[in-house]
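User: I would dearly like some help making sense of a protein record. I have put the entry right below:
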Amino acid sequence: MRRLLLSAVLLAGLAAPPAHAQTPPETVVILDMSGSMWGRIGEETKLEIARGAVREMFSRFPEGSRVGLMAYGHRRTGDCRDIEMLVPPGPVEPARIEATLSRLTARGRTPLTESVREAARILRVGERGGTIILVTDGIETCGGDPCALAAELEAANAAFTAHVVGFDLRTPAERARVACIAERTGGTFVAAGNAAELADALARTAEARPAPPPAAPPRTTGLRATAGAGGPDLPNAAFTVLREGEETPLHDGPAARLALPPGRYVVTGSTEDRIGTVTAEVTERGPEEIVVPLADALPRATLRPAAASIGATELLEVAWEGPNEPGDYLIFAPTGPNAEEPETRHYAWTADGSPARLRVPAAPGAYEVRYVLNRAGRPIGRAAVTVTPVTASLDAAAEAGAGSMVEIRWTGPRAPGSWIGIAPAGSGPAEHLGGAYAWAEGAENPLALMAPIAPGRYEIRFVEGVDGTVLASRPLRVTAARATLEAPETAMAGSHVTVRHTPAQAGSGSFVTAVPPDAEAGHYITYFYADGGEGNLRLPGTPGRLELRFVLAGPGGAAVIARRPITLTPATATLNAPEAVAASEAVTIRYTGPRGDGDFITIVEPGAEPTHYEGWFGAGGEEGEITAPATPGTYEIRYVSSAPGIADPVIARRPLTVR
């Protein structure tokens, strides 16, 4: 249900007319493949949900659409340059998109700004405009300013629009830092966190919006707060300025002169003890300044945590009393001189009631739980909480072969979203290899994880799932895997050969195949899974020099760990049958040939298509029987090969006269 709703949200956002353009000529979908996409919502990872939604979206684009697919963070960990246009803008090909999405995994960082910039370059936004649909679960982590870039692109061409799906963004501040991309380009921002929010977002974005009048130049307007109507100025007041109906502040801070496009704005001013809100209409003529009378006392809230001291990663209940205005929330914030961030990602909405349940941060120290009045962006209630250290440990062998199973004994909190996994040594705390992790909440002990397929230095990590704190780590050295293959040196194209292999079993998805020597590691034509020490491999239909391979599949992709050359001779066959038979008579046919799966013997007219058949039997033995056609005439007995890649599937013919 969640995947279908997200797909509908994406399509609705595309269908809604952009603020300054009617029909964008081309669209680029940007998909977040950062490491945090391995987080889960319910029983599915965000990666699975987003991948399925994008797949569904591409299958439903209107005929004639020209759409491309870009991803970031899918190839390398910790690389802010890992941005790739996977499918250039062009006619929609659902099968190509399906194949592309199935290969993607989440590995890297979140270069929002540079990915949008690269998509805009490919769209040639300055000349032609265009549309970007960004699907992300995180904020910029590579030092860029996506809000400033969005304004720059909109200024370059009013026919540019960006829609943003903020997937599982945790705090109002995070949402604001990506919503600005849409809001500053006339697009739609959708906060997609669960099924209910997705349904609501779908209803909002599906509403038709009339085309706006031509944009007028911004008006430079000042901000001033007074102690009530006509009262003295309050120079220490702070302001939040929002365009009416939007969620992201255009300004959040002290008084300033702002360049505001014409429109209606909601402006809130506040001090430590007073607050006021006005709605102002900005036109080309004015106003020169927006005056906000702070006529009301700043609301206050009281917070009563269930405990003044609590262990890291636990759940804390906080009873509260306060105004409960739209968007208000409770949040953990570090205190003291060493606090690096003003807030954490550990929050709860007041709309969910009292007491609120907040996950405690993983880093020990002094904190306070704050009640934040959303319209002012200001805390109006605080309660001190001390977070005590959590203990976690990992015990495993220091060395493991690539693709082997690593047994891990562990202790630590079974907090929802926390995980144990394997990551490259020195990589970021939230990074790990797809397929080499398990959720701590339901993990077995000992836990078995597959070692990466690439030799090298790695770490086993226990990571808290909300803020990415590493609770415990242990080095792991992965050594190269070794394998052997036994098979004939030559064989007929399209036939079957028996291939013996060691090890007898390998990681799930590992396989034996025959491919050209220069093929990529994960490439295959035909294959069997490496499970049991021996398999029957159908060979391709094209003669020449190939390579038998043992391909180890596992965390990090696929690697060839054994090779053996094999030469394929041209596929040949013989047919032995009477030269003439009576109509509808049973015809016994003896034959030789590659006897591959799907090969067959048939009787057809001489001009029939190569794969055409009427009466037939499968070519899996030495002899078979077909009933001759009922109509007298000249026919042809054929041996037809179904081997992949074969140039001419008819590898033997014999004339047959039906009397």
